[in-house]
What does this fold into?
Amino acid sequence: MPLAERSPVSTRRQQRDRERIRRAAQAAPAGSQSAMTAALAQIGAAFDEAAIVNAFKIRVERLIRLGPRHPAVRARFGARAALLSGRSLDAAIAAVERWWRDERKAFQIASVFGHATRLSLEILGELRLILRLMRFKRMEAEYEIILAALCGAPIATAAE
It folds into this structure.
């Protein structure tokens, strides 16, 4: 991969997140400019709802940068991609939405009994975002290629 195509280690989203945390420390109450007040404001900003959403989006951006042929991406999404095989992008989005709702209900029930795991819910959430992004960017043609790469199927080329 040429150097120009490499993504920077620190994305714009990560930079904006760090800047938001820094601003929180500066916006601490003006009357009490102690180091402890500034530190508590930074900690609060680093772990608030916006930080959780940003961390999720950063994780999805990283998975997209790795590409569908990367072993970690194939391990994470391969089984679900096989279930989506033969569906259009819109049908895949509908199926993943349904799976995500069902998994949320199952997670809530399992949480009551103390045996909940978030992994499948996180994977479906990431897949939801990726598919929605593909629809937003009108990547219906690339969807089939990416799906085939995730499933490990050979991709037909134009020369064949």
Observations:
- The chain has two domains: 10-66, 77-154.
